[in-house]
Design brief:
Distance between the termini: 35 Å
Helix content: 25-40%
Largest sheet: 7 strands, mixed
Structural class: alpha/beta
Oligomer: single chain
Number of helices: 8
Number of strands: 13
Order of helices and strands: EHEEHEEHEHEHEHEHEEHEE
Shape: globular
Radius of gyration: 21 Å
Strand order of the largest sheet: 7-6-5-8-9-10-11
């Protein structure tokens, strides 16, 4: 028995590359009275893995659609995800004191430009509580003064993530390092943003360092968080040319703008199931 209501599905899967995969999955979709509206595929010559993302319109109930896909998924040992196109992904945002990324995330979420649902914002300082309140998002302060505080915070975080059904964790200029255990537990679900200068500058006041060295390019990198600080698989990068006449204040403004843009793009692609992991690299079906 079929339903008259048409659902727009997104299906992603990763498996070992073998002959007949596209034919098999297409046949299962046809058997489910599905119509493919968007299709992307990629074979990694480095890992021998096949990646595919499909958007499909079908009027059959989910259980019938899954029943048609199941034999193909089992035959090719696929790591697959089936979701509804545009469904807001439950996202937890962690912040410190910088407001630019959080403001852009909450504005775009409210205006319908970013398919996420944000149950809460957690900060290790209270500075951004008024901003979250402006967008009617609950804010919780969790100060971290040492290792005991960090362990307690991460324990609370695990409980909240599981109880609230959090699918994505975003570090929106969150200036605390997550433990190795936490990073491994939620691998592939935590996105961070950091500035990218050429050459690179670390420590305090990186924009002042960049200005003093006459940097001509500044940018930002959004990546998955791993136990290796700022070395996780890259999702998105952007770069902007700056001039010798740009002040330190102007560099900060330009840098914050590119950070916000890059983080939001990474979040959007993740929420739309366009980001697939291939070892230490990402496959982006943009």
């Amino acid at each position: 028995m079929t339903s008259s209501a048409t659902t727009h599905w997104v299906l992603t899967f990763v498996c070992e590359d073998k002959p007949g995969i596209v034919h098999a999955i297409s046949g299962a979709i046809v058997a489910a009275n599905g119509n493919i509206t968007e299709s992307h595929q990629y074979t990694s010559l480095d890992t021998g893995r096949f990646f595919m993302r499909l958007q499909i319109e079908s009027a059959v109930p989910r259980e019938m659609f899954e029943a048609q896909l199941a034999p193909v998924i089992e035959r090719y040992n696929m790591d697959s995800v089936l979701d509804i196109v545009g469904r807001p992904m439950k996202t937890l945002v962690l912040v410190s004191k910088s407001a630019h990324c959080l403001n852009d995330i909450l504005f775009r979420q409210r205006s319908g430009q970013l398919p996420v649902e944000i149950p809460a914002v957690f900060g290790n300082h209270a500075d951004l509580a008024p901003l979250a309140d402006f967008y009617s998002i609950p804010f919780e302060e969790h100060a971290i003064a040492g290792e005991a505080d960090k362990r307690a915070f991460e324990s609370m975080l695990r409980t909240f993530i599981n109880s609230a059904g959090i699918e994505l964790i975003v570090l929106a200029r969150y200036m605390q390092v997550l433990s190795e255990e936490f990073c491994k537990e939620f691998e592939g679900r935590i996105i961070n943003i950091h500035h990218s200068f050429l050459p690179g500058f670390k420590g305090a006041n990186p924009y002042a360092q960049a200005h003093a060295r006459g940097v001509k390019l500044i940018g930002a990198t959004a990546h998955f968080v791993t136990a290796d600080l700022d070395e996780g698989p890259i999702i998105e990068q952007n770069v902007v040319r700056v001039e010798h006449s740009d002040s330190k204040k102007r560099l900060v403004s330009i840098g914050q703008d590119v950070e916000s843009k890059t983080l939001v793009q990474a979040m959007r692609w993740f929420a739309e199931h366009r980001v697939l992991l291939d070892g230490d690299r990402t496959v982006i079906f943009s």
